[in-house]
Amino acid sequence: PPRVDVKRFVSVDEGGQATITKENVAIWDDDTDDKDVICDVILPPTCGTVYPAPFTVHQLESGSVIYSQTEHKRMEPMEDTFIISCHDVNPLRKHSGRLTVTIHPLNDE
Question: 60 φ, ψ to 5°?
Fold first, then answer.
C-alpha cells in the first residue's frame, strides 16, 4: 500500500488558495506508478475545499492539488484540517493522513 507522511502544514490567506505539494505531504508506493496511486478526501475541510478530489500522486507532484479557503464570511477561521486516504490498484490497501491548514486572517469585516 502507499505510504502517507504528512510533513508540514498548508498555509493560506483568508479567502485565498494554496497549492498542496510534496513539501506538505509525501506519498509513495514502491511498486505502483504515481498516476495509479489515488488519494480520496475522506474527511473534508470545514472552512474550504480541496480539488481535484480524488487526486493522484502525479497530480500532487505536478502542483495541481489546491486548497481553497472559502468559508470566511462572519467568521475568522484560523485553522482547518482534512484527512486523505491513499490507495493503489487495491483499494483495500490504504494509508491515511491528516493535513492541517493555517489560515491567515485578513482585516475585512
Answer: -60, -50
